[in-house]
Each structure stands twice: as C-alpha cells, then as structure tokens.
Amino acid sequence: MALNTIELNRQRQPLDHLEDVWLFGYGSLIYKVDFPFLERRPASIEGWVRRFWQGSHDHRGTPEAPGRVATLIEQPGAICAGMAYRVSPDTFGHLDHREKNGYLRFFTALHFANGEQAEGLVYVAGPDNAAFLGPAPLADMARQIACSHGPSGANADYLLQLCDGLRNLQADDDHVFALSAMVRALV
Ligand code: SIN
Hints:
By secondary structure, the chain is of the alpha+beta class. About 30% of the residues lie in helices and about 35% in strands. The chain has one domain: Gamma-glutamyl cyclotransferase-like (Hypothetical upf0131 protein ytfp, Roll). It has a 5-stranded mixed barrel with strand order 1-3-2-4-5. About 40% of the residues are buried. The site of succinic acid (SIN) has 9 residues, from α2 and β3.
C-alpha cells in the first residue's frame, strides 16, 4: 500500500453527505487536538489493542530514522480506551493529511461510559502499509523511541503525552505504561 494514504481515504470513504461524524482517537489524537470539534467524550472500542508498531517518517522520525507511534492491532475480546470527537466532515481534510503515513480510516462501534453507542471512524495503520514496523522487544522499541525526532518533535514526547492522556482518562494500558517507564529512564 502507498505510503501516503490521503487519496486512498478520500476515494474509499467520501463523507460529504454526512452532517457530522464521530472520530475515535487512541494515540496522539487523544492529546494533540489541533482540529475543531462539536463535542468530545471518552469512549472505547472493542477487539483492538494499542501497539507502538507503526513507523513515523513524517511526525516523530524521518525516512532515514523512523520513530515509533501507535496503531491498533486486532485482538478478539480486547477493549481500547480513547477519546471520541464529533466533528464536521470537512475536518477530515486536515485529519487525513495528519494521518497520511499509512493510516486508513474505518467505521466501527464506539462505546460511551453511559452505555450509549455510536458509529465512528478510527484511523488504523495495518501490517500491509509501507511504514509498518511490527513488534520488537520492548527494550528495543524504548531505545528507538528515546532517540527519534521528527518535524512534530521528540518521539518520547508522543509516548509520554499519550501516557498522561490515558491516565487522565483513567484508562489502563500495560503496553504503553511499560514502554513509557523504560523511555523515562532513558531520556
Ligand atoms: C490516533 O491517535 O487515533 C491515531 C494515531 C495517531 O495519530 O497517533
């Protein structure tokens, strides 16, 4: 799959006919909210786990030295907590550009704390995208994150801000918390 997913997302899933759209954020979309939204609510999705398995050539690393950022990996029964935003469809012009390094958007069921549900979009960078790095020993991932930098800043800041965002949401994530403890010891 092409490294730049902007056109692919636009073609696969036109949104102009919709009045508003829920977006589920599980990575930087939890803490870096550089887009307008109509409403924001903590939410979760089922069947996915957050993993630092996606390479970042454009934000937290470079093509020569990619960083590691979050994507979702399918795991039956798993729950992934994050933040849902209700946005206008034209906001996806900006979001598709921001998530262009391998992320495709899919509709999935969002669950809110009060038991309500809604269909929403989530950006997933799958194993078939050119920037996918996949699993590695936690210590190796921590070292890579500790020393990577890109146009959006230090890779360590991405991880540590996500960790703070998850704690604010009172969300548990063993993978993120273990990685951030290792990275804190390195930087
Ligand atoms: C997300 O936050 O939902 C997608 C991945 C990212 O931008 O970090």
